[in-house]
Every structure is written in structure tokens, then in C-alpha cells.
């Protein structure tokens, strides 16, 4: 059993390296490819790979990573304050504290008229790069959301996802970490930046 665990950990490390380098984009493909490279039938969980990916980013990016995280969380707060009327939440790797070089800022807002969100962003001088509708399948049903891609003054990329108002209180499970996708609201993010700006939100 211990030997199997060690091999699974090696697969997790290899999968993390594939994801970090950009050789693979999705966790499932990265795990399968890593297992094939190492001749293993044991696949790690997404959480195990995510933890190895976080360690790898920490080792390769050094102290600058924490500085960038604080900067990204600060920029996220600035944009969220513009969108305060639309229940904004910081999600993704900037919320988790697991950013790597290619990470962007992910913000979810809830409103039934995406053009209203665009109007508020433009009014506040936010640089909008592009927009698109994306349809994903959730529990067998198509779910549509509007995505707004912007760039901050510090050159951080931001993806703002506009979901329906009725979805604001829906609980969503994280496919990578396996826990609830809670994120941070404006008040929580403000408190975090004052008290512990590089805190991570990763399941033990």
C-alpha cells in the first residue's frame, strides 16, 4: 500500500508539472498522461495534484508570488467595489491563494442583464478586452453565463462571470479541491487584506 501511495504521489507531481508548463490544460488529461509516463495504473485525486501544483509554483516563483497575490487581491477588491450592487465574489486561484504565472482574477456577479454590468465597468474606466456567452452542462442541463474579460491598471487579467440573480445563493462544489466554492465577498476580502493578505483557502 505504501508503495502504491508513493507511486500515486509521483504521478501527482508529474501531472502538476504538465499543468504548470502548459503541456496539459485539464486535470484529467494531465493525470492520465502522467500515469502513462510513469507506467502507473494509480491516479491521484484532483486535490492531490492541486497541492503539488501549488508547491511547484511556490518553489519556482519565490517571494514574488506572494507580492503578486496581494496585488491581484487588491485589484479584485477595487473592481468588486464598482460592482457592489451585484453580489460580487472573488473566486478561483486568487481567492484560494494558489496563483501561478498565468493566473487571472476570477470574479462572479449576479444580475439578469449583463449589459448593466458592462455599463458600470465602462463608467468606472475599466478596460474591457472582450465578452462572450458560454454554455456549460450542469447536472445534465445547459447553463448559460456571460463572461467579461478586462485588464486592470496593474496589467492583471480579470474574468468577470455574470450569472442569473436566482443563482446567487446556489451552493457549488469545486471540481478540483472537492469543497464548496465559497469565495470572498467585499467585506471578507477587505478583512483578509488587512489581517492576512497571503492566506490560502485549501482543504487539509
Can you walk through the features of this model?
There is one protein chain. The chain has 204 residues and is an alpha+beta fold. The protein has two domains: 2-61; 64-195, Beta Polymerase, domain 2 (2-Layer Sandwich), CATH 3.30.460. 46% of the residues lie in helices and 19% in strands. The chain is built from seven helices and five strands, in the order ααααβαβαβββα. The protein has helices spanning 2-21, 27-38, 46-61, 63-82, 92-96, 114-123, 186-195, and strands at residues 89-91, 105-110, 127-138, 141-151, 157-163. It has a five-stranded mixed sheet. A hairpin with a 2-residue loop joins β3 (127-138) and β4 (141-151). α1 crosses α2 (27-38), α1 crosses α3 (46-61) and α4 packs antiparallel against α7. 28% of the residues are buried. The model has no long low-confidence stretch (mean pLDDT 94).
Amino acid at each position: 500500500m505504501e508503495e502504491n501511495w508513493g507511486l500515486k504521489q509521483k504521478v501527482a507531481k508529474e501531472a502538476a508539472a504538465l499543468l504548470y508548463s502548459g503541456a496539459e490544460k485539464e486535470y484529467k488529461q494531465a493525470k492520465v498522461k502522467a500515469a502513462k509516463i510513469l507506467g502507473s495504473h494509480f491516479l491521484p485525486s484532483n486535490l492531490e495534484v492541486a497541492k503539488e501544483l501549488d508547491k511547484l509554483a511556490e518553489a519556482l516563483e519565490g517571494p514574488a508570488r506572494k507580492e503578486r497575490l496581494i496585488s491581484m487581491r487588491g485589484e479584485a477588491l477595487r473592481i468588486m467595489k464598482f460592482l457592489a450592487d451585484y453580489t460580487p465574489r472573488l473566486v478561483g486561484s486568487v481567492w484560494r491563494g494558489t496563483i501561478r504565472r498565468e493566473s487571472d482574477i476570477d470574479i462572479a456577479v449576479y444580475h439578469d442583464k449583463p449589459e448593466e454590468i458592462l455599463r458600470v465597468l465602462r463608467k468606472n474606466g475599466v478596460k474591457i478586452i472582450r465578452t462572450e456567452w458560454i454554455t456549460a452542462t450542469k447536472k445534465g442541463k445547459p447553463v448559460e453565463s456571460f463572461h467579461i474579460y478586462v485588464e486592470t491598471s496593474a496589467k492583471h487579467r480579470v474574468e468577470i462571470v455574470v450569472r442569473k440573480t436566482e443563482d446567487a445563493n446556489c451552493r457549488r462544489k469545486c471540481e478540483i479541491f472537492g469543497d464548496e466554492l465559497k469565495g470572498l465577498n467585499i467585506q471578507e476580502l477587505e478583512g483578509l487584506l488587512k489581517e492576512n493578505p497571503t492566506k490560502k483557502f485549501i482543504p487539509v
